[in-house]
Structure formats: structure tokens, C-alpha cells
User: Fold this.
Amino acid sequence: MSYAESFCIERVRGASIGATIVGGFGGAWLAMGMAGAGVSVPVALAVVVPAFALIAGLGVAARRRLPRIACEETLEKKQRMRAFAVVNVVQWVAIFGTVNLLGNLHLEGWIVPAIVLIVGAHFLPLAWIFQARQHRVTGVALMLCAAMALVLPGPARDVMECVAAGLILWASAAVALYTAFRKAPRSRLAAQASL
Assistant:
């Protein structure tokens, strides 16, 4: 298998898995926003869970189009995954540290915008690590969403931030799925025939 074919397979696999991950977090943000707006938890889940199931199912469908081969574990891939892990650890440490700091300062009203800002910022190095422009777009959109907190009234701030962050992440999942299906072979048989 050529480097280009291997790279394409990894790109499809990564985009489809990434879509599932951001789709899950997008659903969580949307459910929190809906609950904050007074929607009952069962209704919020009734909206979010089927949409997430669709995103996850489409991710699986994109991966099923790929040939069943073991992609080599290159040094470049190992470095990329190590950098990915470091970015995510830093993100979670920053979130927990910020939540703790804002709670101790009695600034709980700024916790949601701070988390949205941190999550958005974490997409910027991911854009570089995976050479995925979509991550940069998602990161900037989330950071602009966090900046909305400066002009939103207190009671509506968390609801608007949660809903906006969830929709941004779902839009990002949709773009990732589009990319995965566009780059994936039409079927597994077609993919294996090209090898």
C-alpha cells in the first residue's frame, strides 16, 4: 500500500472517529443548554440521543468502507498521537483548574464561558497536529462563542453558551463526516480491489 493510500485511510478513520467524539460532546452541551432553558431532561435527551446515534452510526458506516488492513505504526503517527494526548491532558487540567479557581473566587457565572474558551483553544494545536483546517475553524468559532459571554446577560449566558457550543460541535461533526465519506472508497470491495 502506498503512503498516499495509507494517509487517506488514516484521514477517513480519524475524521469519522473525531466526528463521533465531537458529536458526543456537542450533544452534552446541547442537553445542558436545553436543561438550563427549562426543558426537562427526558425531552432534552429525546432530542440529543437520536441525533448523536445518527452521527456515531454514520462514523461507523464511513469506517466500514475502508479496507481491512493493518496500517503501519509509523514514527510520525506515534508522534501525532502523543501530541494529541498531550493537548487533551492540558485541556482537561486547564478546565479543572479554571473551574476550581473561578469557584474559589465566587465567579461561578464565568465557568461555562471559560470552559468553552479552553475547549476552543485546544482545537488550534489539533489543527496543526492533524493538518485539519476544520479544527481551526471549530476552535475559532468556539472561542468567539465564549467571547459572547461578555455581552450576554447573566441568566441567559450559560444557556446561550451551551447551545451555541453544542451546535458548533455538531456542525464540526457534520463536516468531518462529509470529509470521511468523500475520501472513503464507495465500498469495502472497491477499496480492496484498488490494493
In short: The mean pLDDT is 90. Helices lie at 3-36, 41-64, 75-104, 111-130, 133-147, 154-183, 188-193. The chain has seven helices and no strands. The radius of gyration is 19 Å.
